[in-house]
Amino acid sequence: MKFKAEVRVELKPGVLDAEGKTTQKSLKLLGYPVSNVKKINFYEIEVDVNSAENAKAVIEDACRRLLANPVIHNYGIEVTEMNNSI
Amino acid sequence: MKFKAEVRVELKPGVLDAEGKTTQKSLKLLGYPVSNVKKINFYEIEVDVNSAENAKAVIEDACRRLLANPVIHNYGIEVTEMNNSI
Known about the structure:
- The structure is a homodimer.
- By secondary structure, the first copy, chain A, is an alpha+beta fold.
- Chain A has helices spanning 18-29, 52-67; strands spanning 2-11, 34-48, 73-81.
- Chain A has one domain (2-81): Mth169, Chain: A, CATH 3.30.1280.10.
- The A-B interface holds A 8, 20, 23-24, 26-27, 30, 32-49, 58, 61-62, 65-67 and B 8, 20, 23-24, 26-27, 30, 32-49, 58, 61-62, 65-67.
- Strand 2 of chain A pairs antiparallel with strand 2 of chain B.
């Protein structure tokens, strides 16, 4: 079965979000009334396993080993079953 | 009033997602049963305007001018009111 995992990797509170801050500065320079821009890395991943629990376990492991750095990142995972009707 | 805009900037179908493909290769090398990895840029932005419609208009404009390249990107915007109860 195929599952779609949506993974959201964001910096922990207190860690400098350089990309967010730069975006914020640029938006302000262009005159937009914005504050507190936060940049988040988001991945959509298809996983071939037999259950949603396994899909989540696979992606959790992948987050720890590759997608996130546990020292500076928090991550969230949402798994949904993919429709194979075609 | 403050509104929180969640902006999702992704490559249009057919445009090479180099970061996604590289992540996919790395995950496969590590032995994960994954396919079709898609990398999406996600921003959380606080907007100081007087209505949700204005917040959306501001962020739409910002997407066209700065956050997305309309030639290669699709973007989606979700606006929610922020709780100022403190």
